[in-house]
Amino acid sequence: MDLAKQKWRSRFEAWLLDASADANHATQGDRKAEVIGAMTGTVVEIGPGTGVNMRYYASGVKVIAIEPNPVMHQRLHAQADAHGVDLEVRTLQGEHLDVDDQSADGVVGTLLLCGVEEPQQVIAEAHRILKPGGTYFFTEHVEAPPSTRTRGLQRVLRRPHRWLFNGCRIDQDTASLLRAGPFASIDIDEYDRGAAGLYVRHGLIGTATK
Fold first, then answer.
1. Of 11, 58, 152, 207, which one has the greatest count of Cβ atoms within 10 A?
2. What letters, b where the CB count within 10 A reaches 16 and e where it falls short, cover 14-52?
3. CB distance 193 to 201 below 8 Å
4. 156-176 as b/e: b if 16+ CB within 10 A
5. Cα torsion through 197, 200, 205, 210, rounded to 10
6. Separation CA 165–CA 177 (nearest Å)
């Protein structure tokens, strides 16, 4: 693996996450504030990137951030400091969390499952660490509907996109993965960002309850 190229891609990804934070806040901020802002106690955020969700956490919440990419850590800490979040960063993969069973009051994963090697295992880990009745909040970009131009564009761009964004899959049926998981209930809302979303315009946002 070319580590220099991987580091360059990670820096580009970090820049893009920061650059798109306000636009995502405009479209999803109310839902994030409603769900993430209501979480208390200890929350595990898997794949927080540069910390775009730090603005939503309530005062007094302890956030354990599972972020395997060290390039993201400095910005992640800066966002936590800016919003007064009690943050602990662990450099782990989402498939294998060093977090005790039933120890988290909430789990957050945004734009997460598209970029991990084993999304089913990450979903299982989120369920494992949650306390009974706890909430997993998610938002993901997903595959476009069949027979659409966007779906065709995804087929053409999936390989270069995955290379550029460190393994991110743009044509994953994430809703099916979530529904097949171990959670007691799933609430999923689909959305379409329109042409401005280019080939990642389709997504889902929701919660899963243990």
1. 207
2. beebeeebeebbeebeebbeebbeebeebbbbbbbbbbb
3. yes
4. ebbeebbeebeebbbbbebbe
5. -170
6. 21
Residues 6 or more apart whose Cβ sits within 8 Å of residue 122: 46, 94, 95, 109, 112, 113, 116
The rounded average pLDDT for each run of 10 residues, N- to C-terminus, in the chain (210 residues) is: 58 69 82 97 97 96 96 95 98 95 98 94 98 97 89 88 84 95 97 86 96
How many CA atoms lie within 13 Å of 184's alpha carbon, on the beta-carbon side? 9
Which of 127, 124, 81 lies closest to 107, judged by CA?
Answer: 127
- SS3 at position 71: helix
The count of residues in the chain is 210
Q: What is the pLDDT of residue 4?
A: 53
Give the DSSP H/E element, type plus range, for residue 86.
Answer: strand 86-90
What integer pLDDT is reported at residue 1 of this predicted model? 44
Q: Are 47 and 117 in contact (CB under 8 A)?
A: no
Q: What is the CATH number of the domain that holds 110?
A: 3.40.50.150
How many of the other CB atoms lie within 10 Å of CB of 5? 10
The residue range of the domain holding 87 is 3-209
Q: Where are the alpha helices (DSSP H) in 51-139?
A: 73-82, 119-129
Q: How many structural domains is the chain composed of? A: 1
User: Is the entire prediction scored with pTM above 0.85?
Assistant: yes
